[in-house]
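User: quick one, sequence for these tokens?
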């Protein structure tokens, strides 16, 4: 980890970490064309959380269009934009924001490379529809000549010992020794109350999710930008992996938290969930709460029935 550095308040090419307190469009306006290698963000979903002002859908789209336009301007020719979004809920009706926002990217000459599904297990339990357990990351590039380092983010093979059965490579291992492509469905725990990274922000990025994007789409010392920084996860992930990070945030409380997290990342004292750690499975861990109490009751009933039958046989034998 690098030595502790200052967290700048204004963008400068020689800085390592920048957290701007204010509107994202004001911040983007201070950055020169084609400066940033990766723009990664999770904008407000416009669902009325305490940190956002709910807008009419048309107003929300107009706001997002302005930010996307400026993000495309500051993006390098080899760069990528990753927009992580969920659903807009209008009077109980679901509107997937990625489909709404897609044209705003293509209008700026950007090309879609993946629609990544982020799957998680925990969330609100719905009663009138299936509970939502995923969000999407839409990945766009500015040109066909873009940075993508698959080897940096490979995951363990399911069958690492598998070999070719026939042909000229018969007997040789058939898989890549570095691991396999993680695919476009990513399973990361969302940051809830028992997550090691949890802050007071209700909808924060997990560091490992952002890290996978950063490691695959940037090189060391490249700029990573988050227009809707929140509590600083994107800058933290950049710092942890030797990149430069910048972001803007309007909440004073979140700026304070982001600043502290970045400083902890520089010091090596930040607690976070490392990449490639298996998702906790309570059944595999033998957690007592995974045992169904109704199954236990049914088992006890069967045991009692066997005892009663055995007792009846004993009485019948004594009578003989």
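Assistant:
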């Amino acid at each position: 980890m690098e030595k502790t550095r200052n967290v700048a308040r204004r963008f400068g090419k020689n800085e390592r970490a920048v957290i701007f307190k204010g509107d994202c469009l004001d911040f983007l306006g201070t950055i020169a064309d084609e400066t940033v290698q990766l723009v990664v963000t999770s904008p407000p979903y416009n669902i009325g959380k305490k940190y956002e002002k709910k807008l009419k859908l048309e107003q929300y789209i107009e706001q997002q269009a302005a930010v996307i336009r400026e993000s495309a301007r500051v993006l390098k020719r080899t760069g990528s934009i990753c927009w992580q979004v969920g659903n807009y809920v209008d009077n109980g009706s679901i509107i997937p924001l990625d489909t709404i926002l897609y044209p705003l990217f293509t209008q700026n000459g950007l090309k879609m490379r993946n629609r990544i599904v982020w799957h998680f297990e925990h969330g609100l339990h719905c009663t009138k529809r299936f509970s939502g357990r995923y969000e999407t990351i839409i990945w766009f590039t500015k040109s066909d000549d873009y940075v993508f380092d698959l080897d940096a983010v490979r995951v363990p093979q399911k069958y690492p010992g598998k070999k070719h059965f026939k042909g000229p490579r018969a007997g040789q291992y058939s898989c890549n020794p570095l691991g396999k492509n993680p695919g476009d469905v990513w399973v990361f725990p969302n940051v809830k109350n028992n997550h090691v990274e949890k802050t007071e922000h209700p909808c924060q990025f997990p560091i490992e999710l952002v890290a996978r994007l950063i490691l695959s789409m940037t090189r060391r010392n490249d700029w990573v930008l988050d227009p809707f920084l929140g509590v600083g996860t994107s800058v933290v992930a950049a710092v942890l992996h030797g990149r430069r990070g910048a972001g803007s945030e309007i909440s004073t409380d979140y700026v304070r938290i982001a600043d502290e997290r970045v400083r902890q990342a520089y010091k090596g004292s930040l607690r976070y969930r490392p990449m490639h750690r298996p998702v906790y499975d309570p059944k595999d861990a033998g957690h007592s709460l995974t045992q169904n109490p109704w199954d236990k009751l049914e088992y006890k009933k069967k045991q009692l029935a066997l005892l009663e039958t055995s007792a009846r046989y004993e009485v019948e034998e004594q009578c003989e």
